[in-house]
From TrEMBL, chain A:
InterPro entries: ABC_transp_permease
Protein name: ABC transporter permease
Keyword terms, alphabetized: Cell membrane, Membrane, Transmembrane, Transmembrane helix
Transmembrane portions of the chain: 12-33, 45-70, 90-109, 158-175, 205-231, 252-270
Signal sequence region: none
Membrane topology recorded in Swiss-Prot or TrEMBL: Multi-pass membrane protein
Places the protein is found: Cell membrane
Tagged with keyword Ribosomal protein: no
TrEMBL record, chain B:
Keywords: Cell membrane, Membrane, Transmembrane, Transmembrane helix
Entry keyword Transport: no
Topology with respect to the bilayer: Multi-pass membrane protein
Cell compartment(s), UniProt: Cell membrane
Predominant location category: membrane
Keyword tRNA processing: no
Name of this chain's protein: ABC transporter permease
Gene source species: Thalassovita aquimarina
């Protein structure tokens, strides 16, 4: 494999890791606050549809992004209502949200566009265009670094850069702000937070809302940047891979970056090479497909480092009387 | 003393949740510019108006009984088995292997072998998540989700690379030998003089499913193991003090659950398709969640809810055929049922409990 091919694979790794990273950070906020969220998939899917639909109808990708975030936040609100206000089972709520999104997107898409559950292809201003970073073209002839800068670092859509900037931002919010400290505390010991006079319900709703925003961006990226338009079930299990990445990352932002990049690389390799021939031993493409999940199970089993979830995760908080 | 009488808990709350889901579904149908009343009429005639419709309704219901029971058994041990989908896929693999490679003389023996193989494969697929939960504390929900994806990849590999007949394009096994083909309701009911549609796929697996409902009822409420499963589900520490091994119960409950999900394959793989195709399960594993929640984890409730969902599935197919309402409407209804009977249970329960308390005060 020569240098340029490597750059191409890494470039597509970045593209494919971006939605995983955004969804993974979304899940991180939610789960750090003690709200399990297996509805990442559904929120992304709904956001993908509404961002593509609104971008197509208005011709503005930014309005599409807003619509995507808004729709994702509606589902996040529903999850909050079920799991915070009504103290329901968070896992069941997440499953319901995934099915709701899977069904509603096709129903609405069919009603609006009559194209078998998809939106028309997006063109021009209805899509996020790649950004050429300054000096990318001038530096291109420079050996090694030039192509690296031109092909790998430059030339992505703005949402990719936003996603990568979200990693230090998440770290800063969680570990360097009062809000972050309280958010982490509410996922470990909500009673203590309550005793300190801080609203558990408020914090958890805030976390769920941030989760909605990030899932919304992830969905919009899928439909308006990675691809040009919405197709049925286009998230294709990415919400679950993000969940796997979150466990792989042990609920930490920088680890989330590396785990989503790893899973992105697996997807990129599976996409580019069907079966990989390692000197006689052929690795079938299905192994690459299943690898993120197998790795997660191994991590979960605690054979390679232990992944310990936030202690109060999944449990509704009942105020003492 | 309970705040509410038992009938309110068992009948009233699911009923109200169902009505709420139905109202929202009607609004959705209105929202996409169709007539909900006409849609319901079409669904009823399509799914229940002929023996052909009934044949499909009962065929789907058979699938959902198995997966619903699977989820219910795990719920009794207070575990959420989302892996029904993967377990049913593996069950299908078990059925395919045993039908293709064992020369069965007659279907009546073949079905016993298929039940054993499907249950074994399904249980094996549930065994690893169960072991990891019991011994390593990995959350069963996450591991079973992961195992669904791993099962899909595994099945894909097996069908594409190993079991696909030479020269065939689509990833599926060869047709099973004729001796393993199960009798349909048409053939079963003909001796009694009842004419049933020839082309409907409902088959003898329905009887196996109903027997499984009885079996699960007997297991949960009439055996020591069932008592231990329920005790463990209500309070793990309590069960531990009573000398019940958490490891044993976690393993057994999940093995039974996985086995039931796997047994679905005798209906869809052996009974209907008569070969193993890639997406044989078609989401039935997930519908088991809705069925179990609606049926309040009771086998009789699961039986009724499975028939309701069978009706919705067949009715939804008819809608997609005759109107502009896509099949995905059923997915929305399924989501709403899960939402109201599962996640938003307290939204219905709390006002009802208040009402019953108020009633009691006026009486007393």
């Amino acid at each position: 494999m020569d240098y340029l091919t490597l750059l191409q694979v890494l470039d597509s790794t970045v593209r494919l890791a971006t939605p995983l990273l955004l969804a993974c950070l979304a899940g991180l906020f939610s789960e750090r606050a003690g709200i399990f969220d297996i509805g990442l998939e559904g929120k992304m899917l709904l956001a993908a549809f509404f961002s593509a639909a609104v971008a197509y109808l208005t011709g503005s990708v930014w309005l599409g992004l807003l619509a995507g975030i808004g729709s994702s936040m509606v589902l996040a609100g529903l999850h909050g209502l079920a799991s915070i206000t009504f103290r329901g089972n968070q896992l069941i709520s997440g499953v319901a949200i995934n099915f709701l999104a899977a069904g509603m997107t096709v129903l609405i898409a069919q009603d609006w566009f009559k194209q078998g559950g998809r939106t028309p292809s997006l063109i021009g201003g209805a899509r996020f265009e790649p950004i050429t970073l300054p000096l990318a073209d001038t530096l291109h002839p420079v050996p090694v670094i030039g192509p690296l800068y031109h092909d790998l670092i430059s030339g992505h859509t703005i949402l990719v850069y936003v996603a990568f900037l979200c990693v230090p931002a998440t770290w800063w919010v969680l570990y360097r702000t009062r809000f972050g400290l309280r958010l982490r505390a509410v996922g470990e010991n909500p009673a203590a937070v309550d005793t300190a006079g801080v609203s558990v319900v408020g914090l958890r709703y805030a976390a769920v809302a941030i989760c909605g925003i990030l899932c919304g961006i992830a969905g919009a990226y899928l439909a308006t940047a990675l691809q040009a338009g919405f197709v049925k079930d286009m998230t294709a299990g990415r919400g679950y891979i993000a969940l796997a990445a979150l466990i792989f990352a042990k609920w930490r932002p920088w680890y989330a970056l590396s785990s989503t990049l790893l899973f992105g690389l697996l997807q990129a390799v599976a996409l580019r090479y069907q079966n990989i021939d390692l000197g006689g031993v052929v690795i079938p493409v299905q192994v690459m497909d299943a690898l993120p999940y197998i790795l997660t199970v191994v991590i979960l089993a605690g054979f390679v480092g232990k992944a310990i979830p936030p202690r109060a995760g999944g449990e509704p908080y009942v105020k003492e009387r | 003393m309970d705040i509410m009488p038992k009938w309110a808990d068992v009948v009233l709350i699911p009923l109200i949740s169902l009505i709420l889901a139905a109202i929202l579904s009607a609004l959705v149908i209105l929202g996409i510019g169709e007539d909900p009343v006409a849609a319901v009429k079409l669904m009823v005639t399509g799914a229940l108006g002929s023996t052909y419709g009934w044949g499909y309704t009962l065929y789907y219901a058979t699938n959902f009984m198995f997966t619903g029971l699977a989820v219910a058994v795990a719920f009794h041990a207070s575990m959420f088995n989302i892996g029904g989908e993967g377990q049913a896929m593996l069950g299908g693999l078990g059925v395919a292997l045993i039908c293709l490679f064992v020369p069965w003389p007659h279907w009546s023996i073949a079905i016993l072998g298929a039940i054993a193989a499907s249950a074994l494969f399904g249980a094996a697929w549930a065994a690893i998540p169960a072991y990891l939960q019991a011994r390593r504390g990995s959350h069963i929900v996450i591991t079973t989700i992961m195992f669904n994806f791993i099962a899909a990849a595994l099945l894909n590999y097996v069908l594409v690379n190993l079991l696909r007949p030479k020269g065939a394009m689509d990833p599926a096994t060869a047709k099973f030998p004729a001796a393993t083909n199960l009798p349909t309701l048409h053939e079963l009911l003909a001796p009694f003089g009842i004419s049933f549609s020839k082309s409907a796929p409902a088959n003898i697996s329905l009887i196996v499913a109903v027997l499984a409902c009885f079996g699960v009822w007997a297991l949960i409420w009439r055996t020591r193991l069932g008592y231990e499963i329920r005790a463990f589900g209500k309070s793990e520490s309590g069960a531990r003090y009573a000398g019940i091994s958490p490891f044993k119960i976690t393993m057994l409950a999940m093995l039974i659950s996985g086995g039931l999900a796997g047994m679905m394959a005798i209906n869809n793989v052996m009974g209907e398709a008569e070969r193993l195709v890639l997406n044989a399960v078609e989401g039935a594993g997930f519908i088991g969640i809705a069925v179990s929640l609606m049926g309040r984890n009771h086998p009789f409730g699961v039986f009724l809810a499975a028939i309701l969902f069978g009706f919705l599935y067949q009715g939804g197919a008819e809608l997609a055929l005759w109107t502009n309402i896509p099949r995905e409407l059923i997915v929305v209804i399924q989501a709403l049922v899960i939402l109201f009977t599962g996640a938003l249970d307290n939204m219905v329960r709390i006002p009802l409990e208040r009402m019953f308390l108020a009633l009691r005060k006026t009486e007393g």
